[in-house]
Design goal:
Number of strands of chain B: 0
Number of helices of chain B: 8
Largest sheet of chain A: 6 strands, antiparallel, barrel
Distance between the termini of chain B: 45 Å
Strand content of chain B: under 5%
Oligomer: heterodimer
Number of domains of chain B: 2
CATH architecture of the largest domain in chain A: Beta Barrel
Strand order of the largest sheet of chain A: 1-2-5-4-3-13
Helix content of chain A: 40-55%
Number of helices of chain A: 8
CATH topology of the largest domain in chain A: Thrombin, subunit H
Shape of chain A: rod-shaped
Order of helices and strands of chain A: HHHHHEEHEEEEEEEEEEHHE
Number of strands of chain A: 13
Number of domains of chain A: 2
Radius of gyration of chain A: 67 Å
CATH architecture of the largest domain in chain B: Orthogonal Bundle
Structural class of chain A: alpha+beta
Strand content of chain A: 15-25%
Radius of gyration of chain B: 20 Å
Chain lengths: 367, 190
């Protein structure tokens, strides 16, 4: 196609052809196959130009719209966000399971910890309780141990009276008082001193038992003020006794007379003495008006009897002699044979005698 | 300019046909996020999404000018369908086609002739663009000025520094012949 013909085509497309030009163009189209082909090509080209033009302008428009959009913040910055979303979706099930396991583990750990702690607390509480109980028990024991008087009060199976017969630590009381004794104590009522004693001689027939102090701290009683009469007293003789019926009462004075030279069962080793009988009066010393020891009260009868039986002092003498013979090392010291008391009035005699009269407490096994 | 006029898709489409800039802007802004989301969730970048989207909008735009074109679905669905098709094609070219894309919208399948039509236009455009760039200067400017800008020969003569319109005409003819050659090599080659 030459330039001229091309111009015709152009003009045609623009609708600018004159009639002559139109005819010329048609002629060439019909007769020149090449030309028609070329025109065809050109038309395609033209069309493409149009498309090109239109698209370019549209593109420009869209670009400016897009720029507006971005400026207004309507476009998310990174596309990575979407990639993350994709990944997130892919791994969601796995993540969900992992998270559940983690949460479950944490929760169960907490629970287990709490449970174990509560167990520990319980244990601790139990321990504390036990510890407290032990403390309490310890304290009670301490109380009990420190308060001997309580123990003795409660546990002493019998309380009787005894008195000193030798200043180096010998006393006398009844056989029936000490016969089942596990341990024996004497207590002074003047200064509340307590001594442990052991039974060194028992005479069932005479109902006498001789006690010796076993405390190392004990030295001596000092000189005895009274004399143990070595002969029988007379009927009608005025006598008195001193006793400790109860530990918290102090000494009790009782007086009477020798009403018989044998007791009512006919036992000649004992006097019958008209002195009121009280429990715990076994082992009481019986003095005559001159302050001589004439007897030791022996209680072995029922409460119905009014009279008291007292072992004659001469028999005490014989017991002492037998001890002296048997065990020369344990020789009782008899310092006084003289009666120092006869010149004193009765109240004064009592005052002098008092320190030598003791309360005897006996503890039996199993009680 | 009130937006109330452009409520329905029908109204928008009509406006597009009339080359209403405002309508274009609305359509463009409304539907881009959805496409960005779709492309992004299917191994695409933002710029790829933009390219695909603009192509699709162009398709819509050009079709709206066609007499026979009747949109039976929403603009949204139409754009999504076009983008989807284009993206699948792009993935196949990249060699990263995994066989399935994740969808977020319903889409319509295109008739064969519809797609052919779209593709033909695409080809013509791209070949023209590449041919023009291969043409080089001064032909590219002359031809663009005449065919795209619609300048008269006189204006071109003045611009390019030719003595008169006829000289410019001659020059234009020569450039056109060259372009024709290049164009058809590429075009036929496809």
């Amino acid at each position: 196609m030459n330039a001229e013909l091309y111009e015709l085509v152009e003009k045609h497309l623009q609708g600018d052809l004159t009639n002559d030009e139109k005819l010329k163009l048609e002629y060439n189209l019909n007769n020149d196959s090449n030309f028609s082909k070329e025109v065809e090509d050109y038309l395609l080209l033209h069309k493409s130009f149009k498309i090109y033009k239109k698209r370019n302008s549209l593109l420009n428009q869209m670009e400016s719209i897009h720029a507006e959009m971005k400026k207004a913040g309507m476009v998310p910055a990174k596309s990575r966000v979407y990639k993350m979303q994709v990944l997130g979706k892919k791994f969601f099930p796995t993540i969900a399971v992992a998270a559940s396991v983690a949460i479950f583990t944490v929760l169960s750990t907490f629970y287990i910890r709490t449970y174990i702690r509560s167990l520990e607390n319980k244990q601790t509480l139990n321990y504390i309780e036990l510890s407290n109980k032990i403390e309490d028990t310890k304290n009670k024991i301490k109380e009990v141990v420190s308060d001997k008087s309580l123990i003795i009060e409660r546990q002493a199976s019998s309380i009787a009276t005894g008195f000193v017969i030798a200043s180096n630590g010998y006393l006398v009381t009844n056989y029936h008082v000490t016969k089942n004794a596990d341990s024996v104590y004497i207590e002074s009522m003047t200064d509340h001193k307590r001594f442990k004693v052991e039974v060194v001689h028992s005479d069932q027939r005479l109902d006498l038992s001789i006690l010796k102090i076993t405390d190392k701290d004990f030295k001596t009683f000092g000189r005895l003020p009274y004399n143990i009469l070595n002969k029988e007293s007379d009927l009608g003789e005025s006598v008195y006794t001193l006793a400790y019926p109860r530990s918290n009462m102090g000494m009790i004075f009782g007086e009477g007379s020798i009403s018989a030279k044998s007791d009512w069962v006919g036992d000649t080793v004992k006097y019958q003495v008209s002195i009121p009988v009280n429990p715990g009066n076994s082992g009481r010393p019986v003095f005559d008006g001159n302050g001589n020891l004439v007897g030791i009260v022996s209680r072995k009868y029922t409460d119905a009897e009014v009279a008291t039986a007292a072992v004659k002092s001469e028999y005490l003498h014989s017991v002492i002699d037998s001890i002296n013979c048997k065990e020369p090392l344990q020789k009782l010291q008899f310092i006084t044979q003289k009666n120092l008391l006869k010149f004193y009035s009765r109240p004064q005699q009592i005052k002098l005698i008092q320190p030598f009269v003791f309360s005897v407490r006996v503890y039996e096994k199993g009680k | 300019m009130s937006k109330e006029n452009y409520r329905t898709d029908e109204q928008l489409l009509l406006a597009l046909r009339n080359e209403d800039e405002k309508a274009l802007s609305i359509v463009y802004k409304t539907h881009f996020p959805m496409i960005l989301h779709f492309i992004g969730n299917n191994n695409g970048t933002e710029s790829e999404a933009k390219d695909i989207y603009q192509e699709a909008v162009m398709v819509l735009y050009e079709n709206s000018k066609e007499e026979e074109f009747i949109l039976t679905c929403k603009i949204k669905t139409y754009l999504y369908s076009v983008c989807r098709r284009l993206w699948l094609k792009r993935l196949a070219e990249k060699g990263r086609f995994v066989g399935k894309v994740e969808d977020f919208e319903s889409f319509i399948a295109f008739e064969k002739d519809e797609t052919e039509n779209m593709e033909e236009k695409e080809v013509q455009y791209s070949v023209m663009a590449s041919s023009l760039s291969k043409l080089g200067e001064p032909c590219k400017t002359i031809l663009e000025d005449f065919f795209v800008q619609g300048l008269s020969m006189l204006q071109i003569a003045e611009k390019m520094g030719y003595t008169n319109a006829d000289n410019a005409k001659n020059q234009k003819y020569k450039c056109l012949m060259r372009l024709k050659k290049i164009f058809f090599i590429d075009y036929k080659g496809l």
